[in-house]
Design a protein that fits this description.
The protein has one domain: Glycosyltransferase. It has 16 helices and 13 strands. It has helices at residues 34-37, 51-63, 88-102, 114-122, 132-145, 151-162, 172-187, 197-208, 222-225, 229-246, 249-265, 291-307, 313-324, 356-366, 388-398, 405-408; strands at residues 64-65, 70-71, 74-76, 84-85, 226-228, 275-277, 282-285, 289-290, 335-336, 341-342, 345-348, 380-383, 385-386. Helix 7 runs antiparallel to helix 8, helix 10 packs antiparallel against helix 11 and helix 12 runs antiparallel to helix 13 (313-324).
């Protein structure tokens, strides 16, 4: 069944998952052996994990590309016969992100060889044009899995961090993930990069902390003022991680300040806005509203906020999560029980393939007297894809969660709920 904007009442597509095991490798990577080719068999629920975690694990099966030994960049939800799309630099980063999520489970699934998947993908970091933040994710994931960083990756990190001119090129996600990764390594007993943690945090304070409490996206220039929800997530997490490791009160205060500001800007149905004016602390555009922010990334920093007694953090987490369960503008879940995947986002109709309109709108809204709000629901469409890292964030944020059964054990994840 094809899912399209004209078929919003039909959530249950029948998709064919491609079996790429018989195909030659597209980039020269040898196929996995038979055991790893079947590393992500679908379909069963385990008493060890919550239904929500099993939902994510089973969805990841569909995103697994056995001939490459990694999870895909995109799983398309438009009914095509080959739904998995590979973009190697993105695949590698997403796979490291999934492994990070897996590291937080009560028990690693027996049929996932996490060390081998990590080694196979981490060694590609210096061979592919990956973003800087991928190296931070490698640090973080390796620490969690108690694995070594490949020597060439460590050498690249040494060169990157030793020359502070490189730091001026960091986007918020780069800086946030590098700092979180270094903190994770220090906690795991590897202090090779801890010497720069204090300097990186000082750089964050000087260049990225906005007067509104939100974080800039870059260290300088107009673009830095226009910051995404992802920018807020990664730098807030980095501040929590650094502060909790070192006892640095200013780091925790900054993380809490940003958390409180984001909660104040949360939409009426729990929407986490996408684009902000970090200087003035205003929403410039709610769209796209991403499922991963609702069920994965916001809960990641809100968990820390709850730990530090932030008022309303728990309620904001629940309200945001309920958005994916159907308490949203379209009044339909963005999770698909029949596939155990999620729909990527709510988007303005007609803007699936353009960023220019979004940027121009953000610039215009910067100078309007009122903040941006939600648009008419008739103008809201869906981005019909799922990305593997999104499911990884579910595992990270809820892999050890036991105090939110209304979310982790919601009937929709146990297969008894309805998405239509």
């Amino acid at each position: 069944m094809h899912i399209g904007s004209s078929r919003l009442n039909a959530w249950r597509p029948t998709l064919v998952v491609s079996d790429a095991r018989t195909k030659p490798s597209a980039n020269g990577i040898a196929p996995d052996d038979a055991k790893r080719s079947d590393a992500m068999h679908a379909g069963r629920q385990s008493p060890v994990h919550s239904p929500l975690v099993d939902f994510a694990l089973n969805g990841l099966h569909r995103c697994w590309m056995p001939e490459l030994g990694r999870w895909s960049h995109i799983y398309h939800l438009d009914g095509r016969s080959q739904p998995n799309q590979s973009v190697p630099p993105s695949d590698v980063f997403y796979t490291l992100n999934v492994l990070l999520g897996l590291s937080r489970l009560k028990r690693m699934p027996d049929d996932i060889d996490a060390p081998e998947i990590f080694r196979r993908n981490a060694r590609l970091l210096t061979r592919l044009p990956v973003a800087t933040y991928a190296y931070g994710m490698a640090l973080w994931t390796a620490a969690r899995l108690k694995l070594d960083i490949p020597a060439d990756v460590a050498a690249h990190l040494d060169a990157l961090l030793s020359d502070r001119r490189n730091w001026l090129t960091f986007r918020a996600q780069d800086l946030g993930m590098l700092l979180s990764g270094i903190v994770a390594q220090a906690k795991a007993g590897d202090d090779r990069w801890v010497r720069v943690a204090d300097a990186l945090f000082a750089f964050l304070v000087e260049k990225y902390h906005g007067p509104s409490g939100l974080f800039f996206d870059a260290s300088s220039g107009l673009r830095g003022r226009f910051a995404s929800f992802a920018s807020q997530t990664y730098l807030t997490l980095a501040c929590y991680h650094y502060g909790e490791l070192t006892g640095h009160r200013r780091a925790i205060e900054m993380a809490m300040e940003c958390t409180r500001k984001l909660i104040a800007l949360q939409g009426p149905q729990g929407e986490w806005p996408w684009f902000f004016d970090a200087k003035r602390g205003r929403v410039l555009d709610f769209y796209e509203v991403y499922s991963v922010h609702q069920y994965g990334m916001a809960p990641a920093f809100l968990e820390h906020a709850v730990r530090h007694d932030a008022r309303d953090a728990r309620d904001a987490l629940i309200k945001g999560f309920n958005w994916v369960l159907g308490d949203n503008q379209l009044r339909k879940p963005t999770v698909i029980p029949s596939l155990q995947l999620s729909i990527r986002s709510h988007i303005r109709k007609g803007e699936a393939d353009t960023r220019q309109r979004r940027m121009l709108r953000a610039i215009r809204n910067t100078y309007l007297p009122r903040p941006a709000g939600l648009i008419d629901s008739r103008d809201v469409g869906l981005r019909l894809e799922c990305r593997s890292y999104e499911l990884g964030w579910i595992l990270w944020s809820f892999g050890q969660c036991s105090d939110l059964p209304q979310l982790t054990h919601h009937p929709i994840f146990a297969g008894t709920g309805s998405a239509g």
